[in-house]
Design a protein that fits this description.
mainly beta; Maltoporin, Chain A; 2 domains; Plug_dom; tonb box; signal; transport
């Protein structure tokens, strides 16, 4: 696939000798357009290069998204709690945009997204992202993060930037064993990985195989000191006196011969178990023709938790089964498969690359420790709640040639996508009367006791089930011009046609000019087009959530844009987003060991696709929900920001000190609202303060990291401080507005090379045990949610030990 025309800046914080550092400074850009003469400080837009092998040795983090979160300030990923599927797949963002506005590549080829829609009012609400956690860290050589729009080069979902993951191809082996645990003796992490590369019997041939096993234990970060456990309204009677509420509950607990632990909420990180197998291979037939293939398989099993159902909630609990109430468990089985095969051919310095890339993601839901309350004592306590899946197949042909100072490239792409929802067990979604019959319009209301469906996660029904597909065709061309490494000009254009959304033409112009040796200015401007994902078009379900009054659990609904409910309320059909992306920056290299880049950007998105707030309307009652949400082109947004990266390599005291300072400021504002003409609802229900908060202020506007890595002899020392700016959380409609103060998280580690092949590293993430501010009472669901999963999350300090081997 064509290479991005981008600038590369070293942001690797790993164990680098002076010789290795100098060699990396001269590395050539291999993503971008096909001009292989450019080095990373000679291209028009910024990219970070993360050397995974070296960073992973010294960093406490064990997954791709966590590693990027602590070395790239414009990248954000925060684990969520009690948020259905989003608790099992972390949404990630770049430059404050949505997860669906970041394109992920593997070896330069488009990677498929997940089948999951984020809809639990987390970061990225209403969007569909890519699960970076499905790719094993042990298989990765490096990651290149383009911090600039690239829709004209790669396609419509590259509005915020591109993350390109390069797999290992070295001959030989590496292995890693990792153990970690939080300072609260939970969240145990086990990780074992091995990578082995071998020749296929011919020069320049290779096959690299990687196996990784992971286990992350659950954490508990909650309090229930004033929870109304037994339905005596103690929490409400003593809302202003938590001690009195706790004493009232404790008196009843003692009378029943129980302990408060019998009623604890499980709120924190979900438990995740995962196995991953990846490969990367290439085989030259002759000097001109070579075949390649790569891909992998991942299976992830998660276990998260919903809201606790109290004994007093007769509509949601069956007292004979759970006399003390219960907290449902949401289990996931996520299968992720990818496979690419291609051929490269060189004829008279014309380079041809033909490939087919396949990917699929299937998310299965299982709910346990729960009931279908309408079945009473006959209810099962575990349910298969259904599944959703997404499939993508992409065929690419890319052609390029370098002619003196010019590089030309062109090609085409055909992509097929399919999205499916499958229904679960009947008891996971149906409602019954006291005689065990299905509830119909003729059922006597006096014969119906208890809510239908599996509590916490209502299963997908045959009315939710569907299978939808589409295809798109694209052609592109780009031309670059280099004049003695002083002036670089890139021009790219892309035409795309979607079977369901018509055609679009997008372009990009990028320029770099070195006005004094080692001092350059760079700028770029481009347009973008993003069609709604199939998931945004067709996802629909019923789910349990806190009522609009905030004092009970009710059923709410998400309706697809083509549903009867959407038509009844007057919603317009979804259409594409359009965008304009501009950037300007400077690159400086005043001395050989010091590099500085400063880049500002502006991203405007028109008709941005989001999910609405909960709309309460009498016309939705027929669907059995309290309120409904819909996908809509509801807003226009404008994002402004700046990135600063400074890297310095210093010979100090017989060793090498690598200093990296990186910072980002991003601000997103909603510039306009688009209300359906026939929708009769106030703005606070269509796109209210809670949704505005998610777009504008729920992620840190400011984030910075200072990494100091010192290697001397057989020792390596890392100290890294990461600053997370303030965020604001709006608990509307039943909570309040709270500002969370800025926080600083410190990582430390010490590594020792026993031999040239064996290294031991020990250290800590968040060594000073920093947490977000405690939530205000009205946002904490009566004291249960002690912390909101914002900024750095709610893990607290985490200590680890890691053995690394090469062979």
């Amino acid at each position: 696939m064509k290479k991005l025309s981008v600038s590369v800046l070293l942001l690797a914080i790993g164990f680098l000798s002076a010789q290795e550092q100098e060699k990396q400074i001269e590395d050539v850009v291999i993503v971008g357009n096909r001009n292989a003469k450019r080095t990373k400080l000679e291209t028009p837009v910024p990219v970070d290069i993360i050397n995974i092998d070296k960073i992973q040795k010294s960093s406490p983090q064990t997954t791709v998204q966590d590693l990027l979160n602590y070395v790239i300030p414009s990248f954000n990923a925060v684990r969520q709690s009690a948020s259905d599927g989003t608790e099992h797949i972390d949404p990630m963002t770049l430059r404050g945009m949505g997860p669906d506005q970041v394109l992920v590549l593997v070896n330069g080829k488009r990677r498929h997204t997940t089948s999951l829609v984020n809809y639990q009012n987390t970061v990225g609400n209403g969007s569909v992202g890519t699960d970076l956690g499905t790719i094993p860290v042990i298989a990765i050589d490096r990651i290149e993060v383009l911090r600039d729009g690239a829709a004209a080069q790669y396609g419509s979902d590259a509005i915020a930037g591109v993350i390109n993951i390069i797999l290992k191809k070295d001959i030989g082996g590496t292995a890693s064993l990792n153990y970690g645990i939080s300072g609260r003796n939970d969240g145990e992490t086990y990780q074992a990985g091995v990578n082995y590369g071998a020749s296929l019997g011919k020069k320049d041939s290779y096959i690299s195989l990687s196996l990784q096993l992971n286990h992350r234990g659950k954490t508990t970060r909650t309090q229930n000191h004033n929870l109304d456990i037994f339905g005596g309204n103690f929490a409400y009677d003593f809302a202003d006196n938590p001690a009195a509420a706790r004493a009232a509950d404790d008196a009843i607990i003692q009378q029943r011969g129980l302990t408060r632990d019998d009623f604890n909420f499980q709120i924190g990180d979900a438990q995740i178990k995962q196995a991953q197998l990846f490969f990367n291979s290439e085989y030259p037939i002759n000097d001109r023709f070579k075949l390649y293939s790569f891909g992998g398989f991942s299976i992830k099993e998660g276990q998260g938790y919903g809201f606790r159902r109290l004994p007093s909630e007769t509509d949601n609990n069956v007292y004979s089964i759970y006399p003390n109430g219960f907290q449902p468990t949401l289990g996931s089985k996520v299968y992720d498969i990818s496979y690419a095969i291609g051929a490269k051919y060189n004829k008279n310095d014309w380079f041809f690359d033909l490939s087919n890339t396949f990917g699929s993601n299937t998310f299965n839901y299982d709910v346990s420790n729960t009931v279908n309350a309408s079945l009473g004592a006959k209810s099962p306590t575990s349910f298969n709640a259904g599944a959703h899946s997404f499939l993508q197949n992409t065929i690419n042909l890319d052609v390029s040639k370098n002619i003196k100072n010019f590089n030309i490239a062109f090609g085409g792409e055909f992509r097929f996508e399919q999205y499916d929802i499958k229904s679960g067990d009947e008891t996971s979604y149906l409602r019954y009367d006291v005689f065990g019959n299905l509830v119909t319009s003729d059922t006597d209301p006096n014969d119906v006791v208890g809510a239908g469906g599996s509590q916490s996660f209502i299963g997908f029904s045959p009315q939710n089930a569907l299978s939808k597909s589409r295809h798109s065709t694209a052609v592109y061309a780009d031309v670059s011009y280099d004049l003695d490494k002083k002036l670089n000009v890139d021009l790219a254009g892309r035409f795309e046609n979607y079977s369901d959304f018509g055609s679009t033409l997008n372009g990009k112009l990028a320029v770099r000019y070195e006005f004094v040796k080692n001092y350059a200015i760079r700028a770029a401007v481009g347009t973008g087009f993003r069609a709604p994902s199939l998931q945004q078009q067709y996802f629909n379900n019923s789910y349990a959530d806190i009522s609009t009054t905030g004092n009970s659990i009710v059923t709410k609904g998400i309706f697809n844009n083509d549903s009867e409910a959407a038509r009844a309320l007057g919603f317009d059909k979804l259409k594409q987003e359009t965008s304009v992306n501009g950037s300007v920056g400077f690159t400086l290299k005043p001395i050989s060991k010091l590099s500085i880049t400063l880049d500002g950007y502006l991203i405007k998105v028109k008709d941005r696709i989001v999910i609405t707030s909960n709309i309460t309307d009498d016309r939705l009652a027929v669907y059995g929900v309290e309120s409904g949400r819909f996908f809509a082109n509801a807003i226009d947004t404008e994002t402004r920001g700046v990135d600063l990266v400074i890297a310095y390599d210093w010979r100090l005291g017989g060793g090498n000190l690598n200093i990296n300072l990186a910072g980002n400021y991003t601000e997103t504002k909603i510039t306009d609202f688009h209300f359906p003409a026939n929708l009769q609802t106030p703005q606070n229900e269509f796109f209210g303060p809670d949704q505005i908060n998610i777009i504008e202020t729920l992620s840190p506007k400011t984030k910075a990291t200072l990494g100091l890595n010192y290697g001397i002899g057989k020792f390596n020392f890392l100290v890294r401080n990461t600053y997370f700016g303030k965020v604001i959380r709006d608990g509307y409609p039943f909570g309040g507005v709270q500002e969370f103060a800025p926080k600083m998280v410190t990582d430390v580690s010490v590594g020792y090379d026993f031999t040239k092949n064996i290294n031991l590293t020990v250290g800590a993430n968040n060594v000073f045990d920093v947490f977000p501010d405690l939530q205000i009472y009205e946002n904490s669901y009566y004291g249960v949610f002690k912390y909101a999963p914002v900024q750095m999350g709610t893990l607290g300090n985490y200590f680890f030990g890691r053995l690394n081997f090469t062979f």
